[in-house]
Amino acid sequence: MKTPREIRDWLAALRRWGDERRRERREMAAEFRRENAKFHQYLRDHARLHRQHHGGHPGHYPGAGPDPFWPHHHHQEELRQRRQMQARYHQFSRYHRRLRFIRPLILLLNLTIWYLIFRYLGVRIIAVGFAILISVGGIYELFFLRRLEKQVFNPIDQLKKGVEEIARGNYQVRIECDVLNDLTLLVASFNDMAEKLQESEKLKSEYEENRKTLIANISHDLKTPITSIQGYIEALLERGDLSEADRQKYLRIIEYNTAYMNRLIDDLFLFSKLDLDKLEFQFETIAVRDFMADLLGEFRLELEEKQVRLEYEDRLDCECAVWIDRKRIHQAIRNIIGNAVKYGPEQGLAIRAVLCRREDWVRLELRDNGPGIAEDKLPFIFDRFYRIDPERTKDAISTGLGLAIAKELVEAHGGSIAVASAPGAGSCFTIELPALETQGGDGNETDSDYRG
């Protein structure tokens, strides 16, 4: 049981906390009004832009991005939470006003009752009444203090211990509170804070581990070509009896390793920009049918020189547009096709590209008849520096970043990339990008014929 001094201190602290909560509620109400005004202004601006670009018809407009309504959904969720908190605040205010207004009436009623008892029953009955009241008051105070300790003191003590654990670095601490009052919200906020701190610490550890792995991979991938270049340069300088054919061979190897290092540095630079969200995109609305036909036609000419057959099939029933950066999507598809060429068979490699529509997405499927990917390696296929088999690249430049970059580029467009494969059955890479609009009906919904 708390001492009277501790109870007074706790009550004073509780009053200060209540004042702070009321001030926070007033600030929250003001912030809610400001955010509500901003939201309505956003809707007015959005409607004005639609009228300017589409004559009042709904749809996407240039400059809106793949999904111009994403701030609306996020803002709606915030408004819903703020409305709930505002409703709780108004409910608390009503209870507080009722209690404040009823206190004078209760005091006046008590004075009237004591006056009538004193006038008609005398002093003796008043003494008996006082004794009863003191006894009842003592019992009530006992129950009140126990209730106060359970609903106020214990949760605050738990919060204090939880804060001390957080200060020690223990982010796994959680507080259980079985009472329903304003402290319940405070305890829930504390648990949310501890959970976010724990997630932040976990992400920090993962980033640190990834950083160490990245440095180790870069060191390994740079050391190998540098050692090779150094060895062949020393051979060219020290051996004067080399034939012209050997000299040309050494120079080609040096050129290959130099190109590999240049490609690795370019990929690392691009990947670091993607990782830091600093890569600039030049988005534009593009008719996907013409864009894919031109792009895959360009790839077909390049692959014919390598004895690789590329087939392209357009299954779109109507024209539709996408909001993309031509250069970045070109690079993502090139990385996927290049990966198929590196790990595919020496002779008879065939790649089949299928363009189709699936609900609100434009889908490009890239299938090959290569050796396929083992099931245990599929989860790591988009990891940086991951190579399924470093020995089977057919002397092609492979940094292990191609598919990781392709995934980041596609996701930066609001799309997704997936792979289905099985050993001996080839692989199917699927790219999905959000479709902006369709003319003349819905597109043909087509699932991949191959699912590994």
Automatic annotation (TrEMBL):
It catalyses: ATP + protein L-histidine = ADP + protein N-phospho-L-histidine. Residues 217-437 form the Histidine kinase domain. The keyword Protease does not apply. SUPFAM superfamilies: ATPase domain of HSP90 chaperone/DNA topoisomerase II/histidine kinase (SSF55874), HAMP domain-like (SSF158472), Homodimeric domain of signal transducing histidine kinase (SSF47384). It comes from the Bacteria. Pfam families: HAMP, HATPase_c, HisKA. It is found in: Membrane. GO terms for cellular component: membrane. SMART domains: HAMP, HATPase_c, HisKA. Gene3D superfamilies: 1.10.287.130, 6.10.340.10, Histidine kinase-like ATPase, C-terminal domain. The chain crosses the membrane at residues 101-118, 124-145. PROSITE patterns: HAMP (PS50885), HIS_KIN (PS50109). GO terms for molecular function: phosphorelay sensor kinase activity. Its EC number is 2.7.13.3. Residues 150-202 form the HAMP domain. Residues 190-217 form a coiled coil. Keywords: Coiled coil, Kinase, Membrane, Phosphoprotein, Transferase, Transmembrane, Transmembrane helix, Two-component regulatory system. CDD domains: HAMP, HATPase, HisKA. PANTHER family: HISTIDINE KINASE 1, TWO-COMPONENT HISTIDINE KINASE. This is histidine kinase. It comes from Hydrogenispora ethanolica.
